[in-house]
Every structure is written in C-alpha cells, then in structure tokens.
Amino acid sequence: MTPGEVASPGVSIGELKYWLALWRVKGVGAKTYLHVLQHFPSPLHVFSASTDQLKKSGLSSKITTQIKQFDWTEIEQDLAWLVNPDCHVMCWNDDDYPALLREIPDPPPVLFIRGDRSLLSSLQIALVGSRNPTPTAAKTAHDFANNLASFGLTVTSGLALGIDYAAHQGALAAKGVTIAVAATGLDRVYPAKHKLLAEKIITSGALVSEFPIGTRPQPGYFPRRNRIISGMSLGVLVVEAAIKSGSLVTARHAMEQGRDVFAIPGSIHNPLTKGCHHLIRQGAKLVETAEDVLEELGQMAQIGIKKEHAPQNESEVNKTSLGADYDILLEKIAFDPTSVDILVQECKFTAEEISSMLLVLELQGYVLSAPGGLFYRCPI
Fold it and tell me: Is residue 127 within 8 Å of residue 157, measured between CB atoms?
C-alpha cells in the first residue's frame, strides 16, 4: 500500500495512520475520540496541535501527554494487516459508515472489517443467547436465523459459542448474509475453534471489530462488542439467556438505542430461559416464529431502506429488486388498502405464498400494512 493510496473512502493512507493512532492512545474511548473531532478537523490535526490546544479541547493532561509521546510503531501491525485482501478500515467520516450505528451514544470511530464492508449498512437482525444452550434452543436459533436470512435480513451475532454459532450457521445454510462482531483484533479468531466458521462468514458476509490488530480477548471487551451488535441492527432477538448473561447486556444496549427487542419464551423450570422471561416482563416482544419478528420489523425497517429501492420514474413503479414474482404481486397492490383475498383472486399465487411475499415487500419498503390484514403500496 503506497502513501497516496486510498485505504478508506475519502481517507488516504497518510491520513489513516492518524485515525489509527488516536484510537490506540490510552484513555481515548469512543466518546472522547468523537469529542476531539468536534474541536479538530481530523486526527491529523490532533497530533499536530500544541499541548495547550489539546488541553483547551477538554483533554486531560494524561491523555495530552500520551498523544504527544505516541509510539508510532504501535500502528505498524494495523497497516500491515490492511495490505491483505478483503481487509478494510472504516472511519467515522466515511460515507458508508452505518447510519444506524452512527446514532448510538458511543459509536466506534474506527472499525476493522474483513469481507464486504457494504454489508454493514444492510438491514440486520441481531440474534444472541447462551453460550451453553439446550439442544432445543440451539436448533431454534439455527432455524430462526435460517428463516430470517431467507427473507433477506442480515443475521448479526458475536461469533461466540452456543447461540451465536447456531445463528451464523443458520444464516449460512440459507445462503444468506451474516455478520460477526468480534471482541478481539481481526488478526485472530476467538474462540479459536470457530476459525473455519469465521472464514465462511468472510466469503459471504463480514467480520467486524472496533479493536486494533493484535488485541487479545479481555472480559470488558465483550460488553463493548455487544453495543455494536445491537447498534447496527433493527432489533435484537434473544433465544435463550440466564438472568446474568451477556445477551441481556446486548438487549439493554438495544433498548437504550431505541431498537426492538424480541425474546423467545421457554420452560419456567429452565434457568436459561429466565433472562428471556425477564425481558418480556420489561416490554420485549414475545415471539414464536420468524414471521413474528418480520411483522414487527416491517415498519421500522424502512428507516434503513436505501434510496435506490424507491422507483425513480413511472416505468419503474412496479419493479422491485426481488424478482419477477414480486413484481407481479406488487403490480396488483393498490395505493389503497388491499386484502390478501383480493390478491389471491388477482394473482396465480396461493394465500400462503402471498403472505410470505408481502412480508418481504414490507420489509424492503415496497408496501405498508394496515389494520385488518390489509396492505397498500408505498408512495413513490
């Protein structure tokens, strides 16, 4: 990678090293980093600023000293990692930084990515749960992820043992997209036994981490990781979790971030379901099928719809990116509320097929649902 080469949209390698360096300064977390960017045009200007300028921006004497005495050899492994294929760094000011993640109170200013970086802005559902699930819960997580991925959602989880593993595998089995958010640097896989899974995810999805290359797992890093899982997603589905678990931390992040939280109930005698029951009592939505999740997300998903999904002219009004069958169905849906019974009469599809297709159309922003099981087309 040459000095003038672009390593991140709008950021040359010469600028990127300052983004990476500031992120490695001890004491600079996400909130402090973004606070600094309100006072300086870029991290480059932070490192060229005087001690007085740094202190006037609100930085402590300790952090100011860390910046002035920064050891530039620390970022060498970050830059060396970037030379590898499918390795990317996404900065806060990049145009493709995920819109939903940008909204949370402490979004990471730097993200390391292996795989397709564009998928970070896709419509995502987080799926989390116990690291030691019952066989039934593991199968449930796999099946939910499989169904949700089949409907076009990206399944996001934490690459951990148990439910996370089942969620990633379920999405891959559907030939869908899955994102794994790691609590380590992306030069390693934790747990190590998931290395093969991680490689599969890279080929059709992405691995993501806010932690610089070389970062080893630490207990405090997993809650930080969890806020990114929920922050990129429309909602969080908890399959099985004890009262004291990382999954409830993710759910709490989701609630604080204004995301939907879903929970699958279980036996009152199973301690691993008590966390789900607790969430339901706090207002999480009880779900029994993937369709329950899709119905709830149908309206909310539209905040993440890309502009190109909307028809641009009259000839595109009945065109979707979903295929000919969906185009046929959309053509029969009026701008006034239309019932499934009418659509069955107008189309060659069964009621069950139409119901499934309507969920996809709603999720992708082509139609809206109305009371009484009615649907109408979104205005152009």
Answer: yes
Answer CATH for 115-301 from 3.40.50.1000, 3.90.650.10, 3.40.50.450, 3.40.630.30: 3.40.50.450
pLDDT tens per residue, range 58-111: 999 999 999 999 999 999 999 999 999 899 999 999 999 999 999 999 999 999
Q: Where are the domains of the chain?
A: 1-82, 115-301, 307-377
For 7-54, what is each residue's pLDDT tens digit? 565 566 779 999 999 999 999 999 999 999 999 999 999 999 999 999
User: How far is it, in rounded angstroms, from Cα 225 to Cα 181?
Assistant: 7
- Strands of 338-339's sheet in order across: 338-339, 374-377, 367-370
What φ, ψ does residue 374 adopt, rounded to 5°? -100, 155
Q: Does domain 307-377 have CATH number 3.30.565.10?
A: no
